What does this fold into?
Amino acid sequence: MKLPIGTAPARTSCPQCSATARRTYSSLTLMSTSPVLAALREQEEKSREAPEVVTQVPPRTTAPEAVHPAIARLPRP
It folds into this structure.
């Protein structure tokens, strides 16, 4: 049973069995951290203590070829 904050009585009857039920607090409706975000945070925390060591500069990537000849004549940044 969900009730707005401040309106729940200390005891109420169970809607399924009609027995007296006391109020409990739960976190079912709270938003949990997504697994992707949790993995990113764990990776960030791990890199603080033991960062990956780079032994060489990564290879340079080339720009893709222009699809249209007019695009090839545009100035490059």
User: Anything to note?
Assistant: Strands lie at 11-13, 20-22.
